[in-house]
Design goal:
0% strand; single chain; mainly alpha
Length: 111
Amino acid sequence: MPIDLTQVDWFYVVVLALVVFVASLIGNLLSLHHRVVAAAVSAVVFAAVFVGLFYYPHHLPLPTGPAAQKAAAPAPAPAAPAPAAPQRPRNPITDITPPAQQSPAPAPPAR
């Protein structure tokens, strides 16, 4: 069997099945037995109840996802080592601006 039934979070499955059942009942009652309208209303009611039940912070002990997904979450990557201090350049001149114009050197005295 491709599905390992021992890994299924049955509480989560039962809670979702009950939410779908209640949403279908409400959809059928509100649609007056029109199938397409009942399906649309059921989907909207299910989405509203699901978001309210599983994402609203009411502090109930309900699962927020299957346990298998929590166990299969990847571990955080190890931190990269700190980079070494940058090496200083061998050339002591760090200024790249051109040198200022200097006046020509004086000519040596004639003999």
